């Protein structure tokens, strides 16, 4: 079918275009929530050359489908968009609420749980969860959220996946909960990857 569209072009050009079409056809599809956020924007740009990336977010941005995943119809629409996807990257999170806002963080938890269920329902094979280093802030001198008694105490220290879970905020506890949910889905066959981000800025 591709060859029929190349009448009048020389053979070498036709071969190149056919190869390009085949590469595009084989590109894996990724669905990304929270695509308008700081991390989402970087990933959307960085992955676009190699994958078919569909970004969704509550906030409008060029190339991003506007959906509210706190609403049932938003999750339903995301499931339709995600059909055929190999990977789901879950970045969606209301970052406008405080780290100790329990009610707000509970909403974030419920939203992510719905995304987990949706991904499982449509057969997503790999689920990448945006977690946080705040799941283990306790042993590193943090009293809450993003406050540390003395930053010099942290110099030379590394926060690793071997550190004990010790969240000190509602935000951190929400992330711990979702990592545990991820483990349950991993036991059902979905590959779960939890990425514990530190502080990420636009630059």
Which structural class is indicated by helix and strand composition?
alpha/beta
Number of helices: 5
Mean pLDDT figure: 83
Low-confidence segments: 1-10
Distance between the termini: 45 Å
Helix fraction bin? 25-40%
> How can the largest sheet be summarized?
6 strands, parallel
Helix and strand pattern: HEHEEHEHEEEHE
Shape: globular
Instruction: Compute the CA-based radius of gyration.
Output: 20 Å
Please explain how this structure is put together.
The chain is α/β, with parallel strands linked by helices and 203 residues long. It is built from five helices and eight strands, in the order H-E-H-E-E-H-E-H-E-E-E-H-E. Strands 3-2-1-4-5-8 form a six-stranded parallel sheet, with helices on both faces. A two-stranded antiparallel sheet has the order 6-7. The protein is globular, with a radius of gyration of 20 Å. The chain starts with 10 loop residues before the first helix and ends in a 6-residue tail after the last strand.
